[in-house]
Amino acid sequence: MQDLAEMLGRMRQTEKEVEEKSFSTIDIKQQWKLEYASKADLIGIKESDDLSSLLPTETALLADETMQFIFFKKFAEKKLQTFEYQANILSNNEETNKKKEQDEDAQGPFIICVDTSGSMHGTAENVSKTLCFAILKIAIRDNRKCFLISYSTQLMTLNLTDFKTSIDKLIEFLSMSFNGGTDATPAMQEALNLLETDEFRKADIIMLSDFIMPDFELPIQVQILKAKEKKTQFHSLVIGTIRNPTTIKDFNNNWLYDTNNHNSMLTLVKNLKTF
Q1: pLDDT band for position 5 (cuts 50, 70, 90)
Q2: Shared domain check, 241 and 150
Q3: Which residues have a Cβ under 8 Å from the Cβ of 205 and sit 6 or more positions away?
Q4: Average pLDDT score over residue span 158-180
Q5: Contact status, residue 213 vs residue 185, Cβ threshold 8 Å
Q6: In what order do the strands lie in the sheet containing 110-115?
Q7: DSSP-derived secondary structure for 181-232
Q8: Which of 80, 142, 183, 227 has most Cβ atoms within 10 angstroms of its Cβ?
Q9: Count of Cβ atoms closer than 10 Å to residue 5 Cβ
Q10: Shortest CA distance to 115 belongs to which of 134, 101, 132?
Q11: Spatial separation of the C-alpha atoms in residues 259 and 17, rounded to whole Å
Q12: What percent of the chain has pLDDT over 90?
């Protein structure tokens, strides 16, 4: 638990660095804008009702009582001959390259499948627990449902939608050590079954594993393809450098957390921001 707390702390620090970099990408650019109300440069003559820019010939109409009605008629119709001015004003424009927020309809629930087999013991275990906690934090922040499936030789499921009532079970999960063999097929089948329910119909499925496992069986692959046609996104997080390439081909997005790479946490945080 202490190692997990330290990793969560490093993850939060990395999140702050990403936010700071995002903020620093705002550029202030200067450009010249035309300001026609300012009398800096005379560029011609136009028709208007601007009495402060009258030509002398128009002012002369007021000197003759018989011509005054012409002046007032032209004034009412904004057809007095006036000088036209303009000026260039230097202004600052703020430009950002932020992505548009996703529509609320696109932000569905999360179904997290976590490999708890013996091969995940150690660093991979802490990474997977950290990511579970981070995704749950996103779910709470955005008011999105969350379901946890842990698997090795058997399944353990935990509906985290009501966080207050499930916190004890989550702490129990985060405290346990990983052991046993790896069988991801039942976990994926459970996740696919959840997609058929009203509560998790629009969910994203995220599988965390070292992916040292057999290929999914053909019926599972067919169900995954059908779910993709309904806009379900399948994400894999490969923890380590050895994996089964044919298994991860079934996923839309494949992320790698290389336990020997110090920049892996930064990559992980950036990947989480795509949810």
Answers
A1: very low
A2: yes
A3: 111, 113, 188, 191, 195, 227, 232, 233, 234, 235
A4: 74
A5: no
A6: 155-159, 146-151, 110-115, 204-209, 234-239, 253-257
A7: ----HHHHHHHHHHTTSSTTTT-EEEEEE---SPPPPHHHHHHHHHHHHTT-
A8: 80
A9: 12
A10: 132
A11: 20
A12: 11
Task: Quickly tell me which residue has 């002398």 as its tokens.
Answer: 56
**β-bridge pairing 204-209 and 155-159:** unpaired
Could you list the residue range(s) of the whole structural domain that residue 177 is in?
Answer: 108-272
**pLDDT band for position 93 (50/70/90)?**
low
CA distance 8 to 133: 8
- Helices 264-272 and 123-142 cross at an angle (nearest 10°) of 30
Check whether residue 77 and residue 135 sit in a common domain: no
Pair 146, 240 in one domain? yes
Tokens of 70: 């012409």
Tell me the per-residue pLDDT of 177-205, one tens digit each, with 9 for 90 and over: 667 777 788 999 999 999 999 989 888 89
Sign of CA dihedral 180, 183, 184, 188: negative
User: What pairs with residue 235 in β-bridges?
Assistant: 206, 253
d(CA 249, CA 121): 25
CATH code of the domain containing 261: 3.40.50.410
Are the beta carbons of 32 and 151 closer than 8 angstroms? no
* Total of domains in the chain: 2
Is the residue at 238 inside a domain?
yes
As given in the structure block, the two tokens for residue 189 are 């089948």
Q: What is the pLDDT of residue 58?
A: 83
Report the amino acid identity of residue 235. H
